[in-house]
Design a protein that fits this description.
The protein is an all-alpha fold and 88 residues long. It is 62% helix and 0% strand.
């Protein structure tokens, strides 16, 4: 799953940049990152700096959402239920 994230981001960023008719250089200038960084994101490189990635996404009008996996949520649910206390 984690291996898929860089490629999914690459696909979304490439598509959005193309829809906005921006070159990689244009996007880099607008986001305050290097053109090389934009290229790395669009190539799905697995190690990119989060702050720079967030600048690119913000420039493109995109958000990054982090959600829990179902397997983790089901394990965490009983613990969360116990935190409310009696009568809550």
């Amino acid at each position: 799953m984690a291996d898929e994230l860089p490629e999914r981001l690459a696909t979304v960023v490439r598509a959005r940049r193309a829809a906005l008719r921006l070159s990689q250089r244009d996007l880099a200038d607008m986001a305050g990152v290097s053109e090389r960084f934009v290229r790395f994101v669009e190539q799905g490189k697995p190690s990119v700096q989060l702050d720079s990635l967030m600048a690119v996404l913000q420039t493109l009008g995109l958000d990054l959402q982090v959600t829990g996996r179902a397997s983790h949520a089901s394990r965490a649910a009983p613990a969360a239920g116990n935190q409310g206390g009696a009568g809550a």
